[in-house]
């Protein structure tokens, strides 16, 4: 399966990829420039991961990396409600590209290890990821210490063909 991971800067995309690829949580992450490409094997599935940069100047590239993938993962920082509006805007901007019609979407509310994080129902209200309609949509909460990463991996594996 090939997946693209997008979302605003500092939402935790690279940290998430580090945990699913090496099982290691590292404090030492630097803001991504352009993208990182990672390839991992999980059982008999090879995941090709485009970890795309989230700073404003890189957002116009998201569509290019998402084009042709088996699933898009959109990461949101669930402890930073002030960014929800921008996140929604960028998410809808991305999903509005005709090239991405029908691509399965997984929205991750990251940093759920921190007290006061927004729960899934609040993220759904804030981001309204169901518009436009997606055939395959999932919204999950995750964080560095959470086992939901396994659920996420399962979801991703199920999207491969
Ligand atoms: N507590 C907590 N901190 C996290 C989590 N994920 C990421 N962080 C922290 O959030 C900050 C940003 O993480 P990155 O993984 O660099 O974020 P990014 O989305 O890749 O950012 P860009 O590459 O600039 O788009 C870092 O200080 C991480 O340590 C998490 O699940 N829990
Ligand atoms: Mg990054």
UniProtKB/TrEMBL annotation:
Which molecular-function annotations from GO does this UniProt entry contain? GTP binding; GTPase activity; metal ion binding
- Say yes or no: keyword Cell membrane present: no
Top-level taxonomic group:
Eukaryota
Binding positions for GTP per the UniProt entry: 7-14, 54, 110-113
GO biological process annotation, one example = protein transport
Any Gene Ontology CC annotation: lytic vacuole membrane
Q: Which CDD domains match?
A: Arl10_like
Going by the UniProt record, its keywords in alphabetical order are:
GTP-binding, Magnesium, Metal-binding, Nucleotide-binding, Signal
Sequence positions that bind Mg(2+): 14, 32
Q: Which PANTHER family match?
A: ADP-RIBOSYLATION FACTOR-LIKE PROTEIN 8
State the family named in the UniProt similarity comment for this chain: Belongs to the small GTPase superfamily. Arf family.
Please state what the protein is called: Arl8a protein
């Amino acid at each position: 399966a090939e997946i693209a991971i997008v979302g605003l800067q500092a939402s935790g995309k690279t940290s998430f990829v580090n945990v699913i690829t090496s099982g290691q949580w590292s404090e030492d992450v630097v803001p991504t420039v352009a993208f990182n490409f990672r390839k991992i094997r999980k059982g008999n599935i090879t995941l090709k991961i485009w970890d795309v940069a989230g700073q404003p100047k890189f957002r116009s590239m998201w569509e290019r990396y998402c084009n042709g993938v088996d699933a898009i993962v959109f990461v949101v920082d669930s402890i930073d409600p002030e960014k929800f509006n921008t996140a929604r805007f960028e998410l809808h901007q991305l999903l509005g590209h005709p090239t991405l019609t029908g691509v399965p979407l997984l929205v991750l509310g990251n940093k759920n290890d921190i007290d006061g994080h927004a729960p899934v129902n609040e993220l759904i209200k804030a981001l309204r990821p169901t518009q436009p309609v997606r055939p395959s949509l999932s919204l999950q909460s995750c964080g560095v210490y959470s086992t939901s990463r396994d659920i996420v991996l399962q979801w991703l594996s199920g999207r491969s063909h």
